[in-house]
Amino acid sequence: MEQVGYDMYCKLLDEVMKEMQGGTYKKEEIGEDIQIDLNISSYIPDSYIENSDVKISIYQDIALCKNEDEILDITDEILDRFGSLPKEVENLIEIARIKNSAKEKGVNKITQRPGNVVFYFSKDKFNIENVNRLITVFKNNIKFSPSALPYITYKIDENKSIIKQVKDFLKEI
User: Fold this and answer.
1) Which of 21, 65, 89, 98 is the most buried (most CB within 10 A)?
2) Distance (Å, rounded) from C-alpha 110 to C-alpha 80?
3) How many domains does the chain have?
4) Would residue 162 count as lying in a domain?
5) pTM over 0.85
6) Which stretches does DSSP call E strand in 46-162?
């Protein structure tokens, strides 16, 4: 799991489960793993869900969400079964939203660094014309690097929610 990442592990596990049940699984359903490395706590606490099998199932359901409707469905299910969400679970769900948005925008990795968040793009999905517009919107708070894998470094406000800032930036891409 450490070698392929949690989301890819869940997708591969889902593929194996479907094959064992006699179903088919299209390879394109696995998709590209979007790596998110933000300095927030995003997990399911033992005090919220004690049963490890149920917890793994919930993690898998969250990781496999492909759109907002699926995220809302799993959120409703969690709320119905376990009650109000702890902050860590809210963050986990927001990370799923960020991953879906990142995938739509061609971002394959988001990494938080001191004072910044770096958005790495798939070279074939990067739209250079967005850079000028982003500079207009964010002014001196972004830097573009046109390397083999293009990336944009976004200066964050340490006093604001990192999740909100990342989501707001992704909306502008």
Assistant:
1) 89
2) 31
3) 1
4) yes
5) no
6) 107-113, 116-121, 142-145, 151-155
Nearest to 164 by CA among 101, 94, 111: 94
CA atoms within 13 A on the CB side of 103: 16
Instruction: Yes or no: say if 71 and 139 are a contact pair by the CB < 8 Å rule.
Output: no
Q: What is the CATH number of the domain that holds 39?
A: 3.90.1150.50
Residue 103 structure tokens: 């995938």
Show the beta-strand stretches assigned E in 4-127.
35-37, 107-113, 116-121
The answer to whether residue 24 is domain-embedded is no
Residue 143 placed within a domain: yes
> Tens digit of pLDDT per residue, the chain (173 long)?
444 455 556 666 666 666 666 655 444 444 567 899 999 999 999 999 999 889 988 998 998 899 999 999 999 999 999 999 999 999 999 999 999 999 999 999 999 999 999 999 988 888 888 888 899 999 999 999 988 889 999 999 999 999 999 999 999 98
Element (H, E) at 74: helix 68-82
How do 142-145 and 151-155 pair as beta strands?
A: antiparallel
Single out the residue of 102, 93, 92, 124 nearest to residue 33, CA to CA: 102
CB neighbour list of residue 113: distance below 8 Å, 6 or more residues apart? 153
Q: Residue 40: which domain range?
A: 34-172
